[in-house]
Amino acid sequence: MNLKAIFHYISYLQYPLMLIAFYYALSPYLSGIENLKDNTNLIFLKLNTGLIFMGLAVSFSSLQDTTKTQNKFSKDIWENPKKGKIVISVMAITIFLFIILGLVSYLNSFDGILNDLSIGFIVLGLGMFGFLKAAVEMFENHRKDKNPD
């Protein structure tokens, strides 16, 4: 088995990590409404933990094989030069916003909701950098105007 295939199989860790993120995002609501009224900070601390696990999951997804597409929807995007550029631009803007929001809230708020979420936004943004690199590689590998098959 080659190294590329090993990394591709490691990329499947994104799914359990995303489930853990989903659990942390929902866990305050599963404990009951009466508990939410008393612990509003708990909601945002759990959401921050969820964002951290989501950032890890997204970073693991960047290990996938970029020479293959997973479904028809992604194939349609990466084969079309215009759609691919739009998706990459939106991803880059989103990453920029997550990191800026995380850094500004981390450096300027010592207490409160934004401080509780700041590390999660930073980790998610950094995890998306690897995903952006994988998206650019998929775009280069699959676009019809550069790679007619």
Describe the structure.
- The protein contains seven helices and no strands.
- With 149 residues, it is mostly helical.
- Helix 2 (14-30) packs antiparallel against helix 4 and helix 6 packs antiparallel against helix 7.
- The protein starts with a helix and ends in a 7-residue tail after the last helix.
- The model has no long low-confidence stretch (mean pLDDT 85).
For the biggest sheet, the summary is: none
User: What structural category arises from helix and sheet content?
Assistant: mainly alpha
Q: What is the multimeric organization of the chains shown?
A: single chain
Strand content: under 5%
Q: Rg, please?
A: 18 Å
Number of helices: 7
Helices and strands, with pairings:
Elements: H1 3-10, H2 14-30, H3 33-38, H4 40-61, H5 72-79, H6 81-108, H7 113-142
Kindly list the characteristics that best describe this protein:
single chain; 149 residues; mainly alpha; 80% helix; 0% strand
Summarize the structure.
With 149 residues, the protein is mostly helical. 80% of the residues lie in helices and 0% in strands.
